[in-house]
Design brief:
90 residues; single chain; 0% strand; mainly alpha
Length: 90
């Protein structure tokens, strides 16, 4: 007899959960839908983001190239000055 009471309680809880979940699904379906024509183009935004990222990378590469060139010239100048005698610079 006691197991029949547990079974009825379990069935009642299951029915209650189904009702709650059904109501939650109904609320989600009643939301407003934005038409595709008025939504922003996701691909366009991704493309613009990638363009900006590419410009930043180009700028960084140019700065690194200029910095590398400066460091190479400085190293060449040091090497040149180290191998020349001091009295020949006068």
């Amino acid at each position: 007899m006691a197991s029949a009471g547990y079974l009825q309680a379990a069935v009642l809880l299951l029915a209650l959960q189904l009702l709650v979940l059904g109501a939650a699904d109904a609320e989600q379906e009643t939301g407003t839908v934005i038409p595709a024509e008025s939504r922003p183009c996701v691909d366009c935004h991704a493309f613009e983001f990638m363009q900006r990222a590419l410009q930043d990378l180009k700028k960084t590469a140019f700065n690194l190239d200029a910095r590398t060139e400066t460091l190479v010239l400085r190293a060449e100048r040091r090497a040149l000055c180290d191998c020349m005698p001091t009295n020949s610079l006068r």
